[in-house]
Every structure is written in C-alpha cells, then in structure tokens.
Amino acid sequence: MEGTGKAAVAESSSGRSRSSSSARGRSSPPATPISLAIAFAHGLTIAIMVSLMVHISGGVFNPAIQAALWVTGKMPTVRSAVYIVAQLAGRGRGAPSS
C-alpha cells in the first residue's frame, strides 16, 4: 500500500500543471502554423509526462482511463480507487478558480 500512496501523490501533483493550462471550452481556431506548433507542444508535453510517470503509476492521468483499467481487471480495486481520488484532487487543485 505504501507504493500506492507514493504513486497517488505523484498522480495528483504531476497532472496539476497540465490540467490547469489546457484550453477547455474554447472553439478551435483554423489550423495555422502556430496552432499546429502549439498542438505539437501540448502532445509532446503529455508524452513526456506519461513517460516520466509510467514506472510509478502507469502514466495514467485521466480518471476515465483508470476506471477502464479497473473494469478490465488490469488494475486492482483499491489502487484504482486511490488513483482516481488523487487524479480528481490534482485536477481540482490545478484548475483555476473563477
């Protein structure tokens, strides 16, 4: 269980900056070279975060994917519950308050 706790802390703290900087709710601009560069940088950032966290918690930052891993039996119930709570807590802490 100690490993699960460390991984949950990593989940909540590492996803914070990514979730707070995403552009939720905005319409997509036409594809311009700068927007393609921004999209590439965003994708690269997620790829780097996953590669850094894969050995700790599987690199899953989305509670829906974590739930799918639990449903398919690839992740134990307790570990999935701890990760989902940590992911939601990290998202709540990282989201800007309005």
Explain what you see.
- The chain is mainly alpha-helical and 98 residues long.
- It has four helices and no strands.
- It has helices at residues 2-21, 33-57, 63-71, 77-94.
- Helix 1 (2-21) runs parallel beside helix 4 (77-94).
- The longest helix is centred in the middle third of the chain and has 25 residues, at 33-57.
- The model is unreliable at 16-22 (pLDDT under 50).
Which value, in Å, is the CA radius of gyration? 15 Å
Q: What's the tally of helices?
A: 4
Which stretches are poorly predicted, pLDDT < 50 over at least 5 residues? 16-22
**Beta-strand content bin:** under 5%
- Overall helicity: over 70%
Question: Order of helices and strands, N to C?
Answer: HHHH
Oligomeric status: single chain
Tell me how many strands there are: 0
Query: Distance N terminus to C terminus?
Result: 36 Å
Helices and strands: which structural class?
mainly alpha
If you average the pLDDT, what whole number results?
A: 77
**What gross morphology would you assign?**
elongated
